[in-house]
Structure formats: structure tokens, C-alpha cells
From TrEMBL:
It holds the Pfam family ApbE. Coiled coil: none annotated. It comes from Blastopirellula marina. Keywords: FAD, Flavoprotein, Magnesium, Metal-binding, Transferase. Its cofactor is Mg(2+). This is FAD:protein FMN transferase. It catalyses: L-threonyl-[protein] + FAD = FMN-L-threonyl-[protein] + AMP + H(+). GO terms for molecular function: metal ion binding; transferase activity. It comes from the Bacteria. Its EC number is 2.7.1.180.
Amino acid sequence: METLQLSEILDRARWEIFRRASYHEGKLKAYWILRNDSIIYWRDKGLREFIYCLPGPSRGAIMTLPFSKATFVWGAICIVFSASAAHLCADEASLLSVTQPHMGTIVRIVADTDDAQLFQKATDEAFARVRAIEQICSDYRSDSEVLLLSEKSPTPEPISVSDDLWNVLTQAHTVNRASNGAFDVTVGPLTKEWRRFRRRGQLDPLRIEEVRTGVGAQHMTLDEKKHAVSLGVGDMRIDLGGIAKGYAIDAALQVLTQHGITRALVDAGGDIAVSGAPRGEAGWRVGIAGLDPKQPPILVAHISQCAVATSGDAFQFLEHEGKRYSHILDPRTGYGVDHRGTVTVFAQTATTADAWASAISVLGPAETPQVLEKEPGIATWMEVLIDEKPVTWASPNLGTWLSEHGQKN
């Protein structure tokens, strides 16, 4: 099968535009498949951003697809393919991969299947499912279901919600109670203010206290019989940023399974769910990176039929009067956590892992051990800087959990 370079896919004018925009102008060695509006694989950030801005449908091309042996995804998780899968091409018909931008990040689906047509149909439906969930849960779309619900606060009577929004809210409520309030989707008013603080480079303590009146899980009541939600005070804003991505990952993986694709991985910005292991492998290999993502993974493990999520603040924070505040907010105080760290959580579903990664980032190494004593289904590893000194902690069940969630076909 013929291998094409990017310069052979784009016309000369677009190629020159890209060369000027690329961060790696003189080092382009990536190969691509462009189909519909999807990018099958990428190595170059500048190229990825450029392709998304191209007008009209993407140009189609058939080409071989070489994978690097260690492929980092955004966040503290990396997917490490073994040598047997280091070079993929259509003739091998082994691992197929497709990528699309959704939910403010890059969503990638990888599957071990010989049926390319089935893969395309299944992934088209999986991405459609992700788009539908994004429309329901987005904190940025003014017409999303969750923001339209928030605008009605305080609600004079319970408001019925869609099944997806109900599922996300009930699971968020479960983690809220289990984490002693460290995870709280009513944190939206604070999230909005802290975005402004970071843009301006300064925070306003008085404004924090003002908006905190609309924050608190006690202000949101869930009516299980009616699948309805009541918001008890005004100016509430539900923020599902710490759980919706995981829910979308689980939904996409479920679509693949329904199509008979049972050896697959769905990755959204470093949060990952996997089904069965690739053929001939002990599982999907994931690596945990520490505070410096440029360093080799601290831990590499094989996993299947489970999920892993990461949370950290390496790039989003605010420094004010000599103190560093993370973009990860503690809903109990109204402030960003003041310790820099990275947290990785393993759980049965991406929804659970996503929410708990956020919660544990707030709890830190001081509170997490006691909270997780009652959560045997959660395994975690964290590294935080306290007084500029790295402190690491792993849940006692981490080794056992990873062993139990090895290859399951």
C-alpha cells in the first residue's frame, strides 16, 4: 500500500500555510490518514490544530500508519504499545485508530479489529454519542441542557431532565458524599469566577464569598422517582467538567461493544477506558507520569475492562501575592488547591475515575487515605509538591487492583 506524506495530501497553498504555522516546521516526519472530519493519527501539535481549521471536508488518503513505541496523550497517562504493534498498516489490519475533537479535548478511539468497515461505522456512532453528551453537559455552550437548567435556579418545582443528565448527576452526588464534599458539581459559580481571575492575573476574595452562596450540594435535590432536579437557591451553575468527559468515554466504549468490537480503548485528553486486551497482549499498557510529564513513566501496567483518569495542574494556575492556586477548586473553601500535584485513579468506569481524580486532587495526601478506606473499587497514585518537596502516595490496594484488572477477554 502506498505511503503518502502530508505535502502530497494538501495542495501547495495550504501546505505553505501549514509550514508557517507549524511548531516543527523543519521536522515533519508524521504520516496521516484524513477521512471525513476525523484525523486518524497525529504526532504534530501544530499540524493537528491546523487541520481542524481547514474549511470543507478533509481530503481522503490511504496510507500506512506507523505508531511510535510510546505514544503520550495529554495529561499524566500515556499509552505504550508493545513491539508487536509498533508498526501498523492496513495490511496488518490490527489496531485501527481514529481521532476527533470533542469536549474541549482530543478524543481517540483505538480498536483491535480486522473489519475496517465495522470500525468506521462503530466509531461514527460512538463519536455521535459523545457529541450528544457534550450538548447535554457542556459548561461552555449556552444552550446545553445543564446550563439551561442552571439558569432556572431557584426552581419553584422539580425539573425533569434527560436520562444522561440524570445519570451524571446521580453519580456525581455519590462521589460528593463519599469524598466529604471534595467533589461538588455545584461549584460552577466559582469555576466561572476563577477563569476570570486567571485571565486577569489576580483574585478577588470578596467576589469569592459572594458567589459561594450559590455553591453546595445541599442546594441540589434529586427526585429519583421523577428523574427531576430541584435547585434551591438562585445563581446556581452546575459544572460537570470533572465527570462528563468520563461519562462520554464510557458511552463511546459501550457503543463499540454493542457493535461487536470488544477489544478497544477510548481516550479523551488522558482519561481512558478499555475493554478487552489486544490480541496477543496482556492488556492495554498504560504509563503513569509524575509531576514532570517529560520524564519516563513512573509505572507501566497492563489493564483491561476498566478505566484510568488523571488530574493535575501543571499548566493552569494563578499566582497571587506569592501563593500558587490551582485551577482545581476546593468547593469547601472556594479557593484553588494550593499544592501542585498530579493524581491518577483506576476504577471500573471512566465516569468514576474522572470524578475521583478531581476529588483526590482536592483531598491531597492528608485526607485521601482515610476517605479511600471505604472505596475498595478505587485505586490511586499521586505525587504532590508540599513546601516544594515531592510527596508520593499510592493506595494500599493499587498493586492488587492492577493485578485483578489485567487481561480479561
